[in-house]
Amino acid sequence: MANTTVDPLLEEIIGPTPGQLLRKRVFGHQGLMIGAVVLVLITLVALFAPQLAPHDPYAQSLVARMKPPVFLGGTWEHPLGTDHLGRDYLSRLIYGARVSLMIGAIAAAISGVIGTAMGVAAGYFGGRVDAVVTFLINVRLAMPVVLVALAVVAILGGSLTVVIMVLGFLLWDRFAVVMRASTRQVREREYVAAARAIGASTPRLLLTEIMPNILNNLIVVVTLEMAHAILLEAALSFLGLGVQPPTPSWGLMVSEGKNMMLFEPWLVLIPGAVLFVMVLAINLMGDGLRDVTAPENRN
Amino acid sequence: MTKTALRSTIAGIALAASAGVALADKASDTLNMAFTKELENVDSYFNSSREGVVMQRAVWDGLIYRDPVTNEYVGNLATSWTWIDDTTLELKLREGVKFHNGEDFNADDVVFTVNFVAKEENGVKTQRNVNWMKSAEKVDDYTVRILLKEKFPAAIEFLSGPVSIYPNEYYAEAGPSGMGLKPVGTGPYKVTSVVPGQHFVLEKNENYFDGPKGQPSIGKIDIRTVPDVNTQIAELFSGTLDMIWQVPADQAEKLASMGDFTVANESTMRVGYLSMDAAGRSSMDPNPFKDVRVRQAVNYAIDRKAMVENLLKGKSVQVDTPCFPSQFGCATDAAVVYEYNPEKAKALLAEAGYPDGFTTEFYAYRDRDYAEAIASYLNAVGIKIDFKMLQYSALRELNMKGEVPLSFMTWGSYSINDASAMVSQFFKHGSLDDARDDQVKADLEVADSSTDPATRKEYYAKAIARITEEAYWAPMFSYNTNYVFKSDVEYTPTADEVLRFTTMKWK
To answer: Does residue B309 sit at the A interface (CB-CB below 8 Å)?
Structure first.
C-alpha cells in the first residue's frame, strides 16, 4: 500500500481489516501474551546458551560441590549455586532449556505428523479407513505411555535420540482423536461441498479447505503434547532412563538433587520451578492461540 | 529456615505419615532400624545381599569366628580344629548348644548342613562360598571332618564367614523356603516374625551360649524395609527409627552437624575400579584399550584423591591395587601407582595415536554421581563418554559376554580378608576377565593353591605388579559406610560392613 495514511471516514465505513482484528485479539489476550513472552525468553536463552551461560555446564569442580545460590548466602560466582559435582547450576539450567525445548518440539512434530495424517484420513474418508484408525487409536490408548517408554528405553538404553523417538511415536493419539473429530465436522460444510462441486482434487480439498479450518485445534494439541513430551522427558530422566549424564536436563537435575532434598531443597526446587514455568507458558500460549484463532471468536 | 524449624517440620510430616507405627525405644527395649534393600530370603544360603549377611550373623553361628578387630580366628560352634592333611579338616564341636527350637546341636547338624550346601543342585546362591567343600563326615557326636575338593588355603576364612550351621531335623523338613519364613539357628537373636522383604522382628536369645560373639543386650530388634534414604532420615527425626546405615556421605555430614545423632563411619572392603577391555573382546573397533598407553592414560586422567576427599569422604582411601589393602596377599608396595596427571594422560593418548581422543561406551551400575565424576575426568583428557547406566544383573551379563569396553565396577569380596577373593576372581580367564593375561593367571594359580603364606604373598605380589604395570584396571578407591543412630544407642561399627546387634547397647 503506497498511501499509509488512511482516511478516518473510510475506516469507519469498512471497519478494521482482518489483520488488525487478529492483532487486537492477540495483543489483548493476557494468557497468550504471558505465555508467548515467557516462551520466547526461554527460546532465546536456549539459542544463545553459549553466550549466556557464565560457566561450562560440564566443568566439574569437586572442591566446590553444592555451593548455595546467591539468595541463600552464596556468591555471584555461581548465582544459582553448584550441583553435586560442583558444576554451575545456572549454566546447566540454561543448557537444559535446549534439551527440553528440542525434545518437546521434535517429539510434538513427529507425533503431530503421524496423528494428524491418521486423524484427517479417518475423518475425511470414513468407512474402513476410519475403522482401522479408530482401532489403532484404541490400541495406543490401551498402552500406558510411561510404562511403554520405560520398557523401550530400558531395552535400547537411554539417549537423547531414543527418548525423542519413543515420545514422538507414542504421543500421537490425541492428535489423531482431535483431528478426526474436527475433520468430520468440517467436511460436511458448504464450502467443502462447493469446492468439491467445482472439481477440486482430494489433496487440494484436504490442504486448502480442511486443514486451514482445523488448524486452531491442531495448534492447541501441539502445545499440549509439547508440554506433555517435556514433562515425560523429565520423568524418564528422573528415573535415570532418559537423557544420560552429563547432558544437562531439568528432569535429571531434579533426580540428582533428590537425595539431598531434606537438606538442600533448592537443588530440586530450582529446576522444578523452571520446568513448571515452561510447561505453564506453553499451555497458556496454546490456550490463547486457540482463543484467538477459533472461528467462533472472530466477532 | 533454621535447622530446628526445618527439623520439626520434617519430623511433623514424618510423624503424620507414619501414624500407627508404635514409638519404640529404650523404654520398650526395642531398637528400630531400616534396611534399604528388600531381603529376598532370610535363609542366608539363598540370598546374596549385605542385609542377608547381617541377618545371618545374628540368627546363626559358624563353626569358627573371626574377631573383627584383631582378625584372629577363634572357635565358635567348633572349639578347636586341625588339618589332618591338605584336604581334611577335623573340628571338635562345642557341647550343650541348643537351636532356637530346642533341638540339640551336634555333629549331625554339621554333616547335614555341609552335605546339603556343597551339592550344587541344591542351588546355594553364591556357589563360591560353599563349592570348595566336598562333604562332611561324623567321627563322633562332637567331632566332624570336612573334606575339601582340593587344597583351599582360605577354608578357615570361609568357615568363619558365609558357612553357618543349620539344624538337620528342622531343615530337612522345612527346606530353604520354610527356613526363610521361620528361621531357626543357634545365634544370639531368634526371629519371631517375618514378612518377606518387608519386616523382620528379632528377639534376644536368652539361652545363647558363651561364645566369641558375646551375649546380646538389646531385647528386640525391629527391622523394616524403607527404600528411600530421605524417608529413613525423616523417620529418624520423628523417632520411628533408631538406627540407619549405608547413609550417603553428604547426608551423614549434615546429620552429624545437627548434634542429636551419632554418626559413625567405617571403611568397607568394597573397592571401586574401572575395567578396560584390554583383551579386545568387545565389538569396539578400533579398540583403543588394547594399547597399554591408553589404559595408563585412563589411570592418569582421574583425580582419585579429590574424589575420595569430596565425594566418598569418611574412611575411604585411594586404592592402587586390584584388591583391598587389608586382604592377605594384597601387596600395595608391588603396585605401580598412577598419580593424577591429565597432561601426561593426553600425551600418552597422543603417543598411542589418539591426539584428539576417542569416544567409548562407559557402563556403570551404581553410584551414578561417582561414575559421572569419572566420566567428566575422562572427558577432560579427550576420552568422550557414551554413558550407560544399567542394573547390576544386566551389566554383569554384558560383561560376561565381553561386550563392555569400559565400565565402573565395584567388588566387596564378600568381606573375605584374602586377596584371592578379589584378584583371583577377575584375572584367571573367567568370563569377567577383561585382561586375559597368561602370566597373571599362572602367578595367581600358584598363589591360590599354595599353603605356604610366604609363597602366596610372593606370587600375589607378582600378579599385582603385572596387572598394574599393564594397567588392566584403573583401581579407584575403597568405600565406606555411615551408621547414624540416636544418641542413646551405643555401637562401634566394624570394618567388615556387618552390623552386629550383639554389640549394641542402650546408654
So the answer is: yes
Q: What percent helix, strand, coil does chain A show, rounded to 5?
A: 75, 0, 25
- Asked whether residue A103 is domain-assigned, the answer is yes
Establish whether the linkage from the previous residue to B286 is cis, with ω within 30° of 0: yes
Q: For residue A199, tell me if it sits in a domain.
A: yes
Contact list in B for residue A258 (CB cut-off 8 A) is 230
Nearest CA in chain B to A156: B388
Determine the distance from the C-alpha atom of residue A53 to the mean position of all C-alpha atoms in its chain, rounded to a whole number.
23
**For B64-170, CATH number?**
3.90.76.10
Domain at B268-480: CATH architecture: Roll (3.10)
- Placement of cell 510430616 in the chain: B13
In a domain, A27, yes or no: no
Chain A: residue nearest B233 by CA? Answer: A262
Which chain A residue has the Cα nearest residue B8?
A262
The answer to whether the beta carbons of residues A236 and A251 sit under 8 Å apart is yes
- State the Cα torsion A221-A227-A228-A234 to the nearest 10°: 170
**What is the Cα–Cα distance from B241 to B231, expressed in whole angstroms?**
10
Cα(B250)–Cα(B243) distance, integer angstroms: 17
**Interface probe with B: pick from A55, A58, A85, A87, most Cβ of B within 10 Å:** A85
Delimit the domains of chain B by residue range: 3-42+194-266+481-506, 64-170, 268-480
Whose cell is 464450502? That residue is A191
Tell which phi-psi region holds residue B314, choosing left (phi > 0), alpha (psi between -120 and 50) or beta. Answer: left
Q: Using a CB-CB distance cutoff of 8 angstroms, which residues of chain B are in contact with residue A245?
A: 368, 371-372, 375, 387
Pairing state of beta strands B220-225 and B199-204?
A: antiparallel
**Which chain B residues are within 8 Å of A65, Cβ to Cβ?**
310-311
Q: What tens digit of pLDDT does each residue of B295-354 get?
A: 999 999 999 999 999 999 999 999 999 999 989 999 999 999 999 999 999 999 999 999
On the 0-12 / 13-18 / 19+ scale of CB atoms within 10 A, B125 is middle
Yes or no, beta carbons of A262 and B388 under 8 Å apart? no
Contact A85 B373 (CB under 8 A): yes
The boundaries of the domain holding residue A74 are 38-297
Asked if B387 has any chain A CB less than 8 Å from its own CB, the reply is yes
Taking alpha carbons only, the member of B312, B266, B314, B327 closest to residue B500 is B266
Q: Record the pTM.
A: 0.78
CA angle B282, B286, B289 (to 5 degrees): 65
In angstroms, the Cα distances linking B399 to B275, B276, B396, B475, B502 are: 10, 11, 5, 17, 39
Distance, in angstroms, between A84 CA and closest chain B CA?
A: 8
CATH of the domain spanning B3-42+194-266+481-506: 3.40.190.10
The domain total for chain A is 1
C-alpha cell belonging to residue B278: 584390554
- Residue B271 near residue B422 (C-beta atoms within 8 A): yes
ipTM here: 0.72
The answer to whether B418 and B157 are in contact (CB under 8 A) is: yes
pLDDT in tens, chain A (299 residues): 445 566 777 777 777 777 787 788 888 888 889 999 999 999 999 999 898 888 888 888 888 888 888 888 888 888 898 988 889 999 999 999 998 899 999 999 999 999 999 999 999 898 999 999 999 999 999 988 888 888 887 787 777 888 889 899 999 999 999 999 999 988 888 888 898 899 888 888 888 888 888 888 888 899 889 988 998 888 888 887 788 778 888 888 888 888 888 888 999 999 999 999 999 999 898 888 888 877 666 54
Nearest to A62 among B311, B387, B389 (CB): B311
Task: Residue window 64-103, chain B: list those with CB within 8 Å of chain A.
Answer: none
Query: For the domain that residue A191 is a member of, what is the CATH number?
Result: 1.10.3720.10
Note whether residue A227 is domain-resident.
Answer: yes
